[in-house]
Specification:
The protein is of the alpha+beta class. Helix content is 16%, strand content 42%. The protein contains 2 helices and 6 strands. The protein has helices at 6-10, 42-57, and strands at residues 14-19, 22-28, 64-73, 82-93, 96-104, 110-120. Strands 1-2-4-5-6-3 form a 6-stranded antiparallel sheet, covered by helices on one side. Strand 1 (14-19) and strand 2 form a beta hairpin. The longest helix is centred in the middle third of the chain and has 16 residues, at 42-57. The radius of gyration is 15 Å and the shape is globular. The two termini are 26 Å apart. The relative contact order is 0.22.
């Protein structure tokens, strides 16, 4: 899925770890990501959290999309920071899931908290071979 995710790649994100119900991604804060206050624009922080959410909720190899989310910004990201988003599944019932994502900088300072709600749709992320 990451190989097809041109948006995350263009923002310099890397998929650092993935397992069922969990994903960790990182992104360096570049100069072109700074807002008028010379801090990381919230949209880029959101994009990192949203990408980690997407990988965590698709980690069971069932096509899953976002159904809603919220984000709280707690501290600014700064130029040359490396932001890390850790997404953890909190609940999975039927076709719905809830995921909490913590965004921190390289010093462990909490930058934002994101909560995403997912909805499973038809199909698999990576098609599995049919039994012979």
């Amino acid at each position: 899925m990451f190989a097809r995710d041109r948006a995350s790649q263009a923002l310099g994100m890397s998929l650092d770890e993935i397992r069922p119900g969990y994903a960790r991604m990182s992104m360096p804060v570049r100069e072109d990501m700074l807002n008028g206050h010379q801090t990381c624009h919230g949209g880029f922080i959101f994009a990192l959290a949203d990408s980690a959410f997407a990988f965590a909720c698709n980690s069971h190899n069932q096509n899953t999309v976002g159904a809603g989310c919220t984000i709280d910004y707690l501290a600014p990201g700064r130029l040359n920071d490396t932001l890390c988003a850790e997404a953890q599944e909190q609940a999975l019932a039927g076709k719905s899931g809830i995921y909490d994502i913590k965004v921190s900088n390289q010093d462990g300072r909490l930058i934002a908290l994101f909560r995403g709600k997912s909805h499973r749709v038809n199909g698999e992320v990576v098609p599995t071979a049919a039994p012979a």
